[in-house]
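thought: fold this chain, then report.
action: predict
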Amino acid sequence: MSQQITVAFVQQYTDNVLILSQQRGSRLRGSVYEKPFNAGTNVYFERVGATSAVKRTSRHADTPLVDTPHSRRRVSPVPYDWADLIDEPDKVRTLINPENAYAQNAGFAMGRAMDDEIIAALWGTAYTGVDGTTTVALPSGQKVAQDGTPSSLTVDKLLKAKKVLDTNETDPADPRSIVCSAAAIQALLGTTEVKSSDYNTVKALVQGEINTFVGFDFKMSARLPLVTTGTYRAAYAYCKAGMGLAIGTDIKTRITERPDKSYSVQVYVNMDLGATRIEDEKVVEIPCLAGD
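observation:
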């Protein structure tokens, strides 16, 4: 059984299990493109590149053949498991049945793991080529420059990220998101003067009254890593079609008895998935202070 369940043994009657503060599930799943898969160790997101029209210069000219460029991005899905046991005596001593709370807690953990896969794909190595073995780093042109002394997230940096996506001709109908830390969102307010027309909008963003600004849907995450040997923590702006999430097994929960464990109840949760940048031109890295 869980070695920590004894802390719930009652000194007074209770019928609830309180779940401590944590990120409750995935915050990023809805902002990326999902693709299901049924089998295989690798999954591919197939891509078709841009072509150019051919001007006709004479009557009855031969029909031109335009080679459409094809490429792909590889995902190697990763299985995740979570399980814990509840002994029958536990229920008697605690006067509660924690099965639902355990299952909910496990689901939250799976959602966070899903976000970790997406975040790692935002800044990490992508794999391309026919067999998916060619490595691709996020190009320098997809990174907002850190001018002078490192600074936190600013409106100017957001506008620069927007410019990169606009310059790359990303589809205006493709939803845009930005994932950043709570401190980075708060810092926006500090860099926006009261007289600025952006101030009230940023204030509403910080207070959680809105979640969009300069065309980005803001996603707060405390799971963004430090980059460049810890000198800054990046925020990432991206288009939904630029990030892919391949799901073989969605979050699945089973609550069953274990005869081999004296018929204790096992709460088991699993999933199988992976993520990648589908298109580098649709992802922008924004440097922020390491503390953010």
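thought: worth noting. Confidence is low (pLDDT under 50) at residues 9-15.
final: tokens above.
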